[in-house]
Amino acid sequence: MRLKLLWVGKTQESWVRSGIEEYAGRIRRYLPLEILEAREEKGAQAAAMRERECERLAKLIPKGGRLVLLDERGEAMTSPELASFLSKNRDQGTQDLVFAIGGAYGFTDQFRSQAFKSISLSRMTLTHQMVRVFLLEQIYRGFTIINGEPYHHE
């Protein structure tokens, strides 16, 4: 299984980039990981921005990729549940598991309809920049759970 993370906009803060690099490196010990940024739309109405950003994200999804949206309305999961989700996808032969983080105005309904699953990292509102690190950390935690490593404590 290959893991792809897609998000809208460049990572602005150096400390966020450092966190992304740290956890991306850790994840790559378990499977291939690719991180792709779609250009952020600026200066338009929210609906137009959302539409253009989702079009850009859609172009980054490999054919047959299983799309998982990070969305405040998505399913809340515990870390062990995310580990189980990752493990099942790997064991069922998913070639590309694709996590997408939208822009400031989220996803279009049409883009949502392409998703295999939507998950929420928190019921709180989180910045799109920080969600990147949180998602990577949880994916890393998931693989340590799958492999029985001591990073995650119950």
Describe this structure in words.
The protein has 154 residues and is of the alpha/beta class. The chain has one domain (2-146): SPOUT methyltransferase, trefoil knot domain (Alpha/beta knot). 42% of the residues lie in helices and 22% in strands. The protein is built from five helices and five strands, in the order E-H-E-H-E-H-E-H-E-H. Helix 1 runs parallel beside helix 5 and helix 3 (79-91) crosses helix 5. The longest helix is centred in the C-terminal third of the chain and has 19 residues, at 128-146.
The share of residues in extended strands comes to 15-25%
- Number-wise, the strands total 5
Overall number of domains: 1
CATH C-level = Alpha Beta
CATH topology: Alpha/beta knot
Structural class: alpha/beta
**End-to-end distance:** 27 Å
Q: Residue ranges: pLDDT <50 for 5 or more in a row? A: none
Shape descriptor: globular
Could you tell me the radius of gyration in angstroms? 15 Å
Q: Estimate percent helicity.
A: 40-55%
Mind summarizing the main beta sheet? 5 strands, parallel
CATH H-level superfamily: SPOUT methyltransferase, trefoil knot domain
SSE pattern, N- to C-terminal: EHEHEHEHEH
Strand order of the largest sheet: 2-1-4-3-5
Mean pLDDT: 95
User: Any idea what the CATH architecture is?
Assistant: 3-Layer(aba) Sandwich
Total number of helices: 5
